[in-house]
Design brief:
The complex is a heterotrimer of chains A (423), B (98) and C (983). With 423 residues, chain A is an alpha/beta fold. Helices cover 29% and strands 26% of the residues of chain A. In chain A, the strands form four sheets. Chain A has an eight-stranded mixed beta sheet with strand order 5-6-4-13-14-15-12-16, sandwiched between helices. The two termini of chain A are 41 Å apart. The mean pLDDT of chain B is 93. Chain C has 983 residues and is an alpha+beta fold. Helices cover 21% and strands 28% of the residues of chain C. The model of chain C has no long low-confidence stretch (mean pLDDT 96). Classes of the chains: A alpha/beta (423), B alpha+beta (98), C alpha+beta (983).
Chain lengths: 423, 98, 983
């Protein structure tokens, strides 16, 4: 396969682009694989890639019911950050950010990770203290780029936000992570797919799991729309649809609810906003950045009711635009180009699961709430490690399904066991 | 916009309501063991399709309702007050209407 | 292209000339023009530059699908980028500019990109820009971010203003029986039929005139006018300049009404636009169809446009768009256009890929059958068009014709976007070579060309059918079609192995070669194709290019079009300004602001306010010359020495009434409430189901069956909702009613040694609050000296002798007018949240900063309150192992080792010598304590204060300040025995 580089781009420009082959194969399913990963999204593809790369497992299939990267991989607002404060999350997301920083080179695919800074606006002395607690923890746990900015610094770095003293929530400062930023979401999925494919992984698109055959304690066979497949180990990474597969496997209930999260993009504009800007105050929650193509990409809260529909409703569209105008009042004449929604696994504490299951050869990766995109490299890395070694790495020991029984809730917002409240 | 036929107020936009959760959960007695409470508080069927769920008409009559709604299409099949006694009253009335 | 305004014809008002500017040059048009028609009349041909290659682009259409003439309208703060010129109504003084070009669209240095276009194939940027060329050496993101800066500058289209939008926008909500979208013959007929059947009908039309295609057909004018007239008489609510941009659940539509975008000097009270949310029982989509182009070399040159556009410019705007015109078609729809252009004086050649054998065209129109356009000659305009004829699957050159305008009709795509928003998957019709609306169970009906019905009378009949269906009288839908000679599908024309720039998506510069490259690299699903090439993702969202792109992909795969897939359209149909969606909920009105009944009184008495959730509450009351730090220290000291008054009206207040009220509270609170005597208050803590603390507050027993619960300001709503849920869903047998009375009461805390004296002086005769009459935690009804009735409770958050005084909200100011002079006489003060913070930190009382949803009752040092005799909400799950650990962080007080040093909330508490990791705890609140004469803090640390007695702890605040050595003390720093408040 052709390595991607300025040279090959140049050469193919001269030779009519004839040198490019498929970025991944379209193989026929084999009847057996050592590992079958269900879900051709970012987490499934990253898991396959790291299983092959780090653990030498190459007889792997990734089953995707539609087209790879077609779920939340292609529906998110592309923000990458590690400003989590809870033990467990803190180290995990920092590790993920480190993987992001070299991901383009690692995959030989430009995922366009741009460390343009993540700026969380703060509106009261109490909010500054609460943010300082998180950002101080970041500094103490090996994240050097956590800063608290006062108002003059913020005004200098991010002009034309609404700094009016008569704004509903006047801005007082910001919590900043400089290594955070955005990436090109589709490219990440394609990059992992190409990387995994090169290492021998079979990516099977249009291959929907329709049944799970099992004994008392193992999965024996997956029935799929492309025929039955057996596997030594089976891994679920199907955000949004986790409960459906779980039910198919006869495993009962999960600490997960499926909700829909909308996202919005404006028409393309010349550069207007260099950083990722977010805020949460007075019941509002909002994040915005500008894509390389020039669209203002933004989002806010869930639609607040459980749903498997990949389409949003007007109240949250309105909500998002109100929040956008509240911090960037110059957006009034900028036009919303498209809005869409994705189905996210909302968990009972806002934190994910990477764990073993009641079946000895079944592994679960689920419950990503709003955070799945930024997590995908570390998620794949540690999920691969779990599958290969059949034991959780110490970094993911709290991400099991039993943690609520032990009394551990990794709750960044302190919202309690109500899935819709975790963001 | 989901339009919810509130038995007390008539059909209203869902933005007047807040979604509660899975109405099929039966909460254990307060003195039940913590394992029972764990299951009720933390575990969900998370049905794709018609499910029973609670909604609160928070910007209306403030009644909690049990709604049967398809979580894929958002179609609403039935709505009744969550309070079983009130719900029974509504059933009596609807029989009387016929 | 040599366009000119004809001296007669069209719907423009020649008696009403308008002047406008484009790129600083002044031009003239007429009322009734669009910006596009007026620019065309002035023979302005290059109006835009393409996204990637900066190729010159001109007017390509006469509608929302425009992909060439995309401009910026307005100046300064009112600048609107990315306006489609055919959709912008002309007004006096309109100012427009070309965009995405430097120095201007006619001469653009960015066009140099075109020279390198061979390297800029689809997705090339995923393959490079990672590191140092040529082999992408390096690691990390630094090099990419350097390239990215340049890429971002080159990308984007128009430039947004940096100034706040000066206009306002409105939200409107409406209901109707039938919503009709589109006012062509089908829409007009549908609306009329439904209205005449007595239905409440809203008809929306994105144009400023009703009629759709008939506006470009003078022969239908009389009938059109009659229909419009009849609509008004039938009571149809007609909304021109309004786009139905999206369909949502349960018959909801989003509309955008442009109110003043066409007005030179709008009245001040008018919003610029209105965003309508319409709920309809049935929806009729008479949204028309859009004419497609064909991919061939240089098919994007200014002077290439759709045939329907030329007809519209000629018949509606009186502009002859060219003199020597070639019309290339594969279907019947261009016939009238050819005739009209020829009779307007143009020299017309019709190139029809189909072979009819016979022609009913006038003799002055040259007909070339069996040929299609192969290539356009000319750089910034059309000079000639080369033809090709098909032989089998191959094309061969078939001569060339000089011309200045090339009109293309590659077939028609019904506008199925709105029903696609509802998940109805469009179905390919091979005979008509288009997607027809998909099936849906919802009451949504398509009529006219939106349903693939091409002929005028049939469109009207389908409108009538749709209305009948919407009324619930189902009949079989009319058949699509209506052309006498079938369409011959045609998507791309090129010679084998020819290097072409044949555009599929004009806005994003996606070519046929890009589609084939995507296929070659495995991006074969429609969504992959779209994302890899960016086909259909520009501001027209694929209105022009999607079908061609899909056809080329199907061809590359050797599949039929429906097997290659369909894309799903996302709202909005056309872009909607963010301002309109936000409406009036901007600036100060972003979120509702809650003010206490004492708000004005507080401001009048010098309060500086601060945010407290949705509330504004007094922060401090500065005397002249005081800064905040001086003010709050004075206020706190005054409370400790004499008396202070603080507005606590924002606390949640819930009336809990009924025979089972005591039992209910006993289940909700972790401590006992069943035996609370009448006339007594009790501090209570309630937990969530999962055993963590939800809220705290005092609840007062006013009678056998009547309680008044207070909650924190933040959690008032949450607690109320939770209690309603408990009563209605879990415990319906309890006879209890809860109602929020937060807004009924104005409430103050009067605290300090002189609190009793202050209040006593303000009571009506015969009212007493001596220690015996109102002991600690006592509650009673009371009347003030000015006759105001109220409630008084002896409770203390400050640790002083203190009372909370409640009066009906409307009497709040009158109460203050009575209390405040008396407090002043006692040497007292008004105090705000900052001083309240000081007093409660000194006392070790918790607030939301401590009770952050992750803290147990034991963590907060209040575990002894939790009853062991009764179960309560949260009592089961608080027994989980991790919540019982003794080394959990627990509430403590914090003193600096060196009393001169300060420290901050949010600092991390670490063991001395181990300043790293998660530390041992954290600080939640700090204050300068007037009682101790130094800074103190409150926070949490593993194991609580006894575990850290005598040890040095480091408060680390790396993001803001230096490490400070602190010592850990009991959280009850001031008056731990409570002598003061019991006094």
């Amino acid at each position: 396969m052709t390595r991607f580089s300025a040279w090959t781009v140049f050469w193919n420009g001269l030779t009519g682009q004839k040198g490019w082959g498929r970025q991944w194969r379209d193989p026929e399913p084999k009847s057996h694989y050592d590992v079958v990963i269900v879900g051709g999204g970012l987490h499934g593809l990253a898991t396959a890639y790291y299983l092959a790369k780090n653990h030498g497992v190459t007889n792997i299939a990734v089953l995707e019911k539609g087209w790879l990267g077609g779920g939340n991989a292609g529906r998110n607002t592309t923000i990458v950050r590690s400003n989590y404060g809870r033990p467990g999350n803190r180290e995990f997301y920092e590790e993920s950010l480190r993987l992001w920083e070299n991901l383009s080179h690692d995959l030989n695919y430009n995922v366009m990770f741009s460390q343009r800074s993540h700026i969380a606006l703060l509106h009261s002395p109490g909010a500054i203290d609460a943010a300082a607690r998180n950002y101080n923890t970041m500094r103490l746990t090996g994240t050097p780029d956590a800063e608290i900015w006062d108002l003059p610094t913020l005004k200098r770095e991010v002009p034309h936000l609404n700094y009016s003293a008569t704004a509903r929530f006047p801005i007082m400062g910001a919590a900043v992570q400089k290594r955070a930023g955005t990436a090109r979401h589709d490219a990440v999925a394609w990059g992992y797919a190409r990387g995994a494919d090169q290492l021998g992984v079979d990516i099977l698109q249009q291959c929907e799991v329709t049944g799970v055959k099992r004994t008392e304690d193992t999965v024996t066979e997956l029935e799929t729309s492309r025929g039955p497949i057996t596997a030594g180990k089976v891994a679920f990474a199907v955000a949004g649809n986790t409960s459906r597969l779980w039910t198919m496997a006869g495993l009962g209930r999960l600490p997960i609810e499926s909700h829909k999260l909308q996202a919005f993009v404006s028409e393309p504009l010349k550069p207007l906003l260099d950083q990722v800007v977010v805020f949460g105050v007075g019941g509002a929650h909002f994040y915005i950045s500008q894509s390389d193509k020039g669209g203002m990409v933004f989002g806010g809260d869930l639609d607040w009711y459980k749903s498997y529909a990949q389409r949003g409703n007007l109240p949250m569209v309105q909500d998002g635009c109100e929040a956008a105008m509240s911090i960037l009042p110059c957006l009034g004449r900028v036009k919303l180009l498209r809005h869409w929604s994705g189905v996210v696994d909302m968990s009972m504490d806002g934190t994910h699961f990477i764990c073993k299951t009641p079946l000895s050869n079944l592994y679960l990766n689920a419950g990503w709430n709003y955070g799945g995109f930024k997590a995908s490299p570390a998620s794949g890395w540690y999920f691969a490690d779990l599958i290969a070694n059949d034991r959780p790495h110490e970094r993911i020991q709290s991400f099991d399904l039993k943690r609520f029984e032990r009394g551990i809730q990794i709750d960044e917002r302190g919202a309690g066991p109500d899935p819709k409240l975790h963001g | 916009m989901i339009r919810i036929p509130c038995p007390f107020c008539g059909t209203r936009d869902h933005s007047e309501f807040t979604y509660g959760g899975d109405a099929s959960i039966t909460y254990p007695a307060l003195d039940a063991p913590k394992e029972e409470w764990h299951d009720a508080v933390f575990l969900r069927d998370n049905i794709c399709g018609p499910q029973l769920e609670t909604w609160h008409h928070v910007h209306g009559c403030r009644m909690w309702l049990v709604i049967e709604r398809d979580t894929m299409t958002h179609e609403i099949m039935s709505v009744r007050p969550a309070n079983p006694k009130l719900s029974a009253l509504f059933e009596d009335n609807s029989e009387a209407d016929q | 292209m040599t366009a000119r305004r004809l001296d007669h014809g069209g719907r423009i008002n020649r008696a009403h000339p308008l002047s406008f500017t484009f790129d600083g040059n002044t031009f003239r048009g007429y009322k009734g023009d669009t910006l596009a028609s007026a620019l065309m009349a002035n023979n302005e041909t290059v109006l835009g530059r393409s996204f990637k290659y900066h190729r010159p682009r001109g007017i390509m259409s006469a509608g929302v699908e425009e992909s060439g003439a995309i401009v910026t309208v307005g100046r300064d703060a009112s600048r609107e980028p990315n306006v489609k010129a055919p959709m912008q109504e002309l007004y006096e003084g309109l100012s427009a500019e070309g965009q995405n070009a430097w120095p201007n669209v006619r001469f653009d240095l960015g066009a140099i990109n075109g020279l390198f276009s061979r390297f800029f194939a689809a997705g090339f940027y995923y393959k490079t820009f990672m590191g140092l060329p040529p082999f992408e050496w390096g690691h990390g993101t630094r090099l990419w971010m350097l390239y990215e800066k340049l890429i971002r500058k080159a990308a984007g289209m128009g430039s947004a203003s940096r100034e706040p939008d000066p206009d306002c926008y409105d939200h409107v909500h409406a209901f109707c029986d039938v919503l009709v979208v589109g006012s062509g013959p089908a829409g007009l007929t549908a609306a009329l039929t439904a209205a005449e059947a007595g239905r409440d009908v809203i008809l929306v039309e994105q144009d400023f005139e009703l009629g759709g295609d008939t506006l470009s057909d003078p022969s239908r004018e009389i009938e059109r006018a009659q229909l419009v007239d009849a609509l008004a008489k039938a009571g149809v609510r007609i909304m021109p300049r309004t786009t139905a941009f999206g369909l949502y659940d349960h018959g909801t539509a989003g509309l955008l009404e442009r109110v003043t975008d066409h007005v030179a000097d709008p009245a001040d009270q008018l919003p610029r636009q209105r965003f309508w949310t319409v709920r309809s029982d049935a929806t009729i989509l008479a949204t028309g169809a859009l004419e497609r182009s064909i991919a061939f070399d240089n098919n994007d040159r200014p002077g290439v446009m759709t045939a329907a556009a030329a007809r519209s410019y000629l018949n509606r705007f009186g502009v002859l768009p060219g003199q020597k015109i070639v019309i290339a078609t594969n279907n019947d729809s261009v016939h009238h256009t050819a005739v009209a252009l020829a009779s307007a004086g143009a020299d017309v050649t019709l190139a029809d890929i189909r072979k009819h054998g016979a022609s009913d065209l006038p003799a002055d129109i040259e007909l070339r059958e069996g040929v299609a356009p192969l290539k356009v000659h000319g750089r910034s305009g059309v000079e000639a068009v080369a033809f090709a004829s098909a032989s089998g699957n191959n094309w061969s050159a078939a001569g060339q014709t000089d011309c200045d305008l090339l009109l293309v009709s590659g077939g028609w795509s019904p506008v199925v976007n709105l029903s696609s928003h509802r998940g109805a998957k469009p179905a390919w019709n091979a005979e008509l070579a288009c997607f027809l609306p998909g099936l849906t169970n919802e009451p949504i009906y398509h009529a006219g060309s939106a349903a693939g019905i091409w002929e005028y009378e049939a469109c009207k009949a389908s409108g009538e059918w749709a209305a009948t269906a919407a009324l619930g009288e189902a009949t079989a839908p009319p058949q699509p079609g209506g052309w006498s000679t079938p369409i011959k599908p045609l998507y791309e024309v090129r010679l084998p192995e020819a290097k072409t720039k044949a555009f599929v998506d004009f806005q994003h510069d996606v070519t046929g070669d890009d589609v084939r490259l995507a296929q070659q690299e495995g991006f074969v699903s429609v969504e992959h194709l779209k994302r890899y090439t960016t086909l259909g993702m520009a501001t027209d969202q694929g209105k022009m290019g999607n079908v061609i792109g899909l056809a080329l992909m199907a061809d590359a795969l050797g599949k039929d079009i429906p097997d290659a897939g369909t894309t799903r359209f996302r709202p909005p149909y056309t872009p909607v300004s963010i301002g309109a969606l936000a409406g009036r909920n901007v600036g100060h009105h972003f979120k509702p602001l809650r003010r206490t009944p004492l708000h004005d009184w507080n401001l009048k008495h010098g309060a500086t306010m601060t945010e407290a959730g949705p509330w504004h509450r007094p922060w401090y009351f500065a005397k002249t010359g005081e800064v905040i730090d001086e003010a709050y220290v004075r206020e706190a000291s005054t409370v400790r020495k004499t008396v202070g008054i603080c507005d606590v009206s924002s606390l949640g207040k819930i009336a809990v009434q009924g025979p089972d009220a005591a039992e209910f509270l006993n289940r909700v609170y972790s401590n006992g409430f069943a035996k609370l005597p009448i006339g007594k208050a009790r501090y209570g803590i309630m937990l969530r189901d999962d055993g963590f603390v939800m809220d705290d507050g005092t609840t007062w027993r006013l009678g056998e069956t009547e309680f008044l619960m207070t909650t924190t300001t933040t959690n008032a709503g949450k607690v109320m909702v939770f209690m309603e849920e408990l009563l209605q869903t879990r415990w319906p047998d309890l006879k209890v009613h809860v109602s929020s009375v937060s807004d009924e009461w104005a409430a103050v805390s009067v605290a300090g040694p002189k609190a009793r004296a202050t209040i006593a002086a303000c009571l009506a005769e015969g009212e007493y609050i001596s220690n015996e009459a109102l002991p600690f935690m006592g509650v009673r009804k009371i009347t003030l000296a000015n006759g105001i009735p109220g409630l008084i409770a002896r409770i203390s958050f400050s640790g002083e002798l203190a009372y909370e005084l409640y009066v009906p909200a409307g009497h709040g100011a009158a109460m203050m007018d009575l209390l405040w002079p008396e407090a002043e006489r006692q040497g007292g003060c008004l105090y705000g949240l900052e001083a309240l913070g000081t007093l409660r930190i000194e006392k070790g009382h918790v607030t939301g900063a401590e009770l952050d949803g992750r803290v147990t009752i034991d963590d907060a040092g209040l575990g002894k309150m939790a009853s062991t005799k009764k179960p309560f909400i949260g009592s089961a799950l608080r027994q989980r192992p991790d919540l019982l650990r003794h080394d959990r962080p627990q509430l403590v007080g914090i003193f600096p080792k060196n009393p001169g040093q300060t420290f901050k909330g949010g600092a991390i508490l670490c063991a001395d010598g181990e300043v790293s990791g998660f530390g041992e705890g954290w600080i939640t609140g700090v204050t300068h304590s007037p009682m101790f004469g130094h800074w103190i803090g409150i926070g949490f640390i593993s194991g609580g204060h006894t575990a850290w007695a005598g040890k040095t702890v480091i408060a680390s605040d790396l993001t803001r300040s230096e490490d400070v050595e602190v010592e850990i003390v009991s959280p009850h720093m001031y008056d731990p025995e409570g002598v003061k408040m019991h006094g």
